[in-house]
Amino acid sequence: MAHPPLDFGFRDLLHPADLLTQTPRRKIDHECPIGPDGKLYDTQALKLNNNKFLSVAGLPEILPRILVNPEAISWVDLSFNNLTHVEPVLLQLKNLQILYLHGNNIIDFPHLEILNGGITIRTLTLHGNPVDRTVGYRFIVISWLRQLKNLDFSVVTDFDRMQSEVWGRKWLMIKAKLKKEDGY
């Protein structure tokens, strides 16, 4: 049974460790249940939106201290923070399928490529980051994450997939050129 998300949004949090000192937001109609031990929360979704995170380093180590089953986390909302890249620690969330990163400060593609390693993201949001102004942005992201079903709250279509093959090859050529020129 899916439980409501554990909501730490709008708390001015700076670091994942701040989750240990804050009380989650409560909603009368759908509060996140507490597990059998009376201390840990029982959920598969975590809302960390509208905070001040610069990094999520340490998040996987914090989750067992607040969740009944941290391995079950499948949805993380990190929208509207101050993140500049996607950190490898997110790959430790092996069941992560939905990741909201919109409204951050992710600047370029190399900071997104990490999502292609070891987890199966089905829904991803990146709009509102500087990277989304790159020509071909949508198709480049889809070319890396072939399993995506939704990008920026829009369904990935057959046309998107076709275009992503072309843009993916273009990006590989650009990346090789950058690597040669700048040691990228």
UniProtKB/TrEMBL annotation:
One Gene Ontology cellular component: cytoplasm
Protein's cellular compartments: Cytoplasm
Domain of life (superkingdom): Eukaryota
PROSITE patterns, sorted: LRR (PS51450)
Keywords in alphabetical order: Cytoplasm, Leucine-rich repeat, Repeat
Gene3D superfamilies per UniProt: Ribonuclease Inhibitor
Main location: cytoplasm
InterPro entries, sorted: Leu-rich_rpt, LRR_dom_sf
Protein name: Leucine-rich repeat-containing protein 51
Species the sequence originates in: Hypsibius exemplaris (Freshwater tardigrade)
